[in-house]
Amino acid sequence: LALCTDRHAGCHLYFTTGQRPSALPSDPLTRKAVRGAQEQEQRNRTHYRDRSHFYQNSIQRLSRQIQNALLVYPQPMKVPARMGLLSPALIWRAVRLNDERIFTDIFQNEEPDFSVDLLLDASASRLQSQEIIAAQAYVIAQSLKSCQIPVQVSSFLSLRGHTIIRRFCGYSEADRQDRIFDYFAAGWNRDGLALRGCRHLMEDSPSKKRLLILLTDASPNDDRRIPPDLENGFFTGRDYSGDAGVEDTAAEVRLLK
């Protein structure tokens, strides 16, 4: 409720890890969707397996590129030292603890100091690209993993007023990245609300700096309209598509930054 406000009033956010029921649901439409997701998972895995040589080479190349970037742009780190720049906040340690390390020194840290969130558009407009999107996401996640960069992978779609964010693997679940092949597209995409939900997930990041990569066709479209906004001169609701959808998504990107 805290996130489904203003332009997204009346909508809902649903977070899931995609755990499957022990038995198929009784509702025929839901049962059909579950079976469709299972079949798509097999297609995703088959696509990757049949082209494993190409994708493994892609992981190796991307990993090297990331590692080279980390070496070229090391991050400065401040540490206590016996000489350097005097740190007033540490002076008490010299008086009370006889600690001479009341200065700060800076050295270049070559270890990653950021995390990455990979968010996949899983709306129906991606139906013809599901296998490729799953493989691309897996390549990116595996490359980041090899460089010891925490990565979290999720997808989003909208159904019946609910924006569903499915987390395939969290920052500390690198061994579960193969769940990315569960990727399945359906429904609509309310990109702005999905970004709000992703911001909520990113609060669990172990790093102070956080990077979000969004794989999408950049065409937000949802069946739930934007409510009237009297303050900005919109006296009736608007479709969540076209310019209105893009403007809402851009506003959420700015807030996320």
The number of distinct β-strands equals: 10
- Quote the average pLDDT: 91
Rg over CA atoms: 23 Å
Please give the order of strands in the largest beta sheet: 1-7-6-5-8
Q: Helical segment tally?
A: 6
In angstroms, what separates the terminal alpha carbons? 22 Å
- The chain-level structural class is alpha/beta
Brief digest:
With 257 residues, this protein is α/β, with parallel strands linked by helices. It has helices at residues 28-50, 52-72, 91-97, 130-146, 191-202, 242-256; strands at 12-16, 75-81, 85-86, 103-109, 114-121, 151-159, 162-169, 209-215, 222-226, 238-240. It starts with 11 loop residues before the first strand and ends with a helix.
3D architecture notes:
- Strand 6 and strand 7 form a beta hairpin.
- This protein is α/β, with parallel strands linked by helices.
- The protein is 37% helix and 24% strand.
- Helix 1 packs across helix 4, helix 2 packs across helix 4 and helix 5 packs parallel to helix 6.
- The strands form 3 sheets. It has a 5-stranded mixed beta sheet with strand order 1-7-6-5-8, with helices on both faces. The protein has a 3-stranded antiparallel beta sheet with strand order 2-4-3, with no helix packed on it. It has a two-stranded antiparallel sheet with strand order 9-10.
- The radius of gyration is 23 Å and the shape is globular.
Write the layout of secondary structure elements.
Layout: E1 12-16, H1 28-50, H2 52-72, E2 75-81, E3 85-86, H3 91-97, E4 103-109, E5 114-121, H4 130-146, E6 151-159, E7 162-169, H5 191-202, E8 209-215, E9 222-226, E10 238-240, H6 242-256
Parallel strand pairs: 1-7, 5-6, 5-8
Antiparallel strand pairs: 2-4, 3-4, 6-7, 9-10
